Amino acid sequence: MVLLSGGMDSATCLALASRGAGPVHALSFVYGQRHVRELRSAQRLARRYRVEAHRIVRLPLAELVRSALTRPGSPLPHRSRRHGAIPATYVPARNSILLAVALGYAESHGLDRIYFGANAIDYSGYPDCRPEFVRAFNALARRAVRGPREGGRPIRIVAPLLRRSKAEIVRLGSRLGVPWALTWSCYAGGRAPCRRCDACRLRARGFREAGVADPTAWPVRLGRAPG
Amino acid sequence: MVLLSGGMDSATCLALASRGAGPVHALSFVYGQRHVRELRSAQRLARRYRVEAHRIVRLPLAELVRSALTRPGSPLPHRSRRHGAIPATYVPARNSILLAVALGYAESHGLDRIYFGANAIDYSGYPDCRPEFVRAFNALARRAVRGPREGGRPIRIVAPLLRRSKAEIVRLGSRLGVPWALTWSCYAGGRAPCRRCDACRLRARGFREAGVADPTAWPVRLGRAPG
User: Fold this and answer.
1) DSSP letter (8 states) at residue A186
2) Is the dihedral of CA A203, A204, A206, A211 positive or negative?
3) Which residues of B touch A149 (CB under 8 A)?
4) Average pLDDT rounded to a whole number, residues B159-187
5) Interchain pair B143, A150: CB under 8 A
6) How far apart, in whole angstroms, are the C-alpha atoms of residue A118 and residue A109?
7) pLDDT tens figures, A75-132
8) CA torsion B72→B75→B76→B82, rounded to 10°?
9) B142: which DSSP letter?
10) Which architecture does CATH list for B2-210?
């Protein structure tokens, strides 16, 4: 199964998972994110890859946790990884929550791998996108569900993009034929990419460095953006 | 903060947490459980202990995972821990999901401890109630949220009842003055305890062995129950 946000990384994961033998299930989440537009991308990608099942799960995170990503109107950071600080778009424990739901879904449906498009190279610095986090979640997954003696099968989190740069992801995805035009990265929640938020800038840099044209958006400005 | 289901164990955790200096927040979940009646108990307990905040979180788990606990009408097991099998009331990855949401809430509200009433002695055998699970979740919690260098403070899962028998929990809770009459254990979803499900039987045995009268329910049959 694949955690499918609708962005570049999860789309690449979907392409990777679809090369396997078994059926692929995709899970997407509406958790109060401003850029709920990404869900439309997730749906289109799921259809394109003919997944066995695509479930959209509503979680009331915006009422529970504090983040610029779930608070419309609050400013979005424009530069990633400044002085190692965690940007305001970090959603507390979000990936733990999404992976835990995925774990329950995988156990219920007999799926043994969860593709998770976390990336710790060209990323925003979120703690729950790092290799240590993925390792700790895998250790949890071994204990959180039915063990082999109890009729269960091991479920593993697979994070194939963890140590790749955005340019490498663009190259890999292009090789796999990922329909980039269907993906969505911008955090801002507008109808077109804002070209200024972290997600837009990381995307633009990835395409530029990979020497691939981004079919979705017009060129993204990379100079200093107003705060 | 306390994960407050409304049962005996979480009520005892609430009593323990309330003895501390700081404010106590409680989180309860409507996840499609048949015994949503327990939420009324959670609300009464939260009021009784004058918690700072009590949030009831809706999660659509019943549509995502398979369990007798979220499927009205499916039979409930009447004997706990038969041959080490996991009973049908196990909800896949439920405690991982609830703790992950609690983790995000705790980080957002500056709370550093999550009381979790898991018990691995007189319990139904669920994998996510065992010491290994609690240990693995704590290891995850250290990596899943902002670290000390990033302006975060460590958040710890505290499971004070993990290695206590139900009778010991009854004795501890009675000493702390837990209002047992406000708690709810039965899984069946009726207006009165069914007296036959695992939860009812574990409760009855705990009170009997502790030599304490259960103020809520009439005596629970402990003989062999029809399958």
Assistant:
1) -
2) positive
3) 84
4) 97
5) no
6) 23
7) 887 665 555 678 899 999 999 999 999 999 999 999 999 999 999 988 889 999 999 9
8) -150
9) H
10) 3-Layer(aba) Sandwich (3.40)
Rounded-to-integer distance, Cα A110 and Cα A132, Å: 26
Q: Which residue has the tokens 């009812």?
A: B200
* Inter-helix orientation angle B94-109/A131-144, to 10°: 140
At which residue do the structure tokens 């950071």 appear? A77
Tell me whether B147 touches chain A (CB under 8 Å): yes
Q: Do A108 and B137 touch (CB under 8 A)?
A: no
Contact B143 A149 (CB under 8 A): no
Q: Which residue of B has its CA nearest to A84?
A: B150
Q: Of A105, A132, A149, which has the smallest distance from its Cβ to B143's Cβ?
A: A132
How many residue pairs bridge chain A and chain B with CB atoms within 8 Å of each other? 155
The residues near A214 (Cβ < 8 Å, ≥ 6 apart) are A180, A203, A204, A207
d(CA B93, CA B99): 10
Residues on chain A touching B59 (C-beta within 8 angstroms):
59
pLDDT > 70: what percent of chain A?
A: 92
Residues 156-195 of B with CB under 8 A from A: none
User: Which pair of tokens denotes residue A151?
Assistant: 């009729």
CB-based contact A179:A140 (threshold 8 Å): no
SS3 B35: coil
- Of B225, B190, B224, B218, the C-alpha closest to B204 is B218
Please tell me the distance from the alpha carbon of residue A72 to that of residue B200, in angstroms, as a whole number: 46
Q: List chain B domain ranges.
A: 2-210
